[in-house]
Task: structure prediction
Amino acid sequence: MVLNKTLILILPFLISFGIPVIIAFGFFHWVRFKRQGKRSPLKGSLLRSPGESLLNKIEEFDDKINDKIIFIFLIPLVLYSSYISQLYFGATKFNILVAAIIVIISIIFFILTARQMIQLIQVRHDYRLGYEAEMAVGQELSQLMLEGYHVFHDFPEEHNNIDHVVVGPSGVFAVETKGRAKPDKSRGTVDATVSYDGRNLIFPDNIVTSEPIEQAKKQAATLSKFISSATGEKIFVKPALALPGWFIKREKADDFILLYGRKNEYLKAVQGNEVLNREQIGRIVHQLDSKCRDVKLQTYNPNK
Result:
């Protein structure tokens, strides 16, 4: 009877300190596994995949959310187990005011941490939508390689990343991708159509914005500067905006490239007169490959 009572009292305390022990035990065996005298069959670095930067951010948010989940359960448990242990070992006597304060602190901590976790989940949801949009566009653009084009994804630049870069005889294209949820008002294609008036995008939920277009043009200028400097030849990069899953209605004709639909639509958008020869394409592709081939190998990497 006394043993059962003792276990009930100290069980929360054991659990709260048992979790770090389990984590430490798992980490020890993970390190031991990595030191088994094996190495990866792969060498060098890999090319960046569609949404590589967003995927890294999603993983960071996963870690933050997991931390919040642990804290939500761990901190109140530590407070409770510490107070119960003090009562059991006679270090203090039961005081309803102290108990009430511990309960209040636990509730406040739970609410604040849960609120932070919900905010993290919402931001992660937005990143996930962006990642899936980049994956969808990347898969369609990658099919252009069957037509002789070169395609790179998530090109890193100083302040941002260019979602996709397409290189072919008709030129170099910097593609910005925007993943945007559609309104669900049972209006068919009306809920899935965005209008373009030559300057702004008008979405069916009455949101008017030019920011994605301006961003695409800015990134094209940045990429043009990089390629021109790297190759020693002035190369003009054409901006393009991809809106996967949307229909686009042009209200005014201009030369700005809007991508939607499937491979054939993408191919028509980048086809045109030959402005780059094979030697120029080779030099451009070499520079883009060297910038995008920076994904370090993780498995059996002694530095990880």
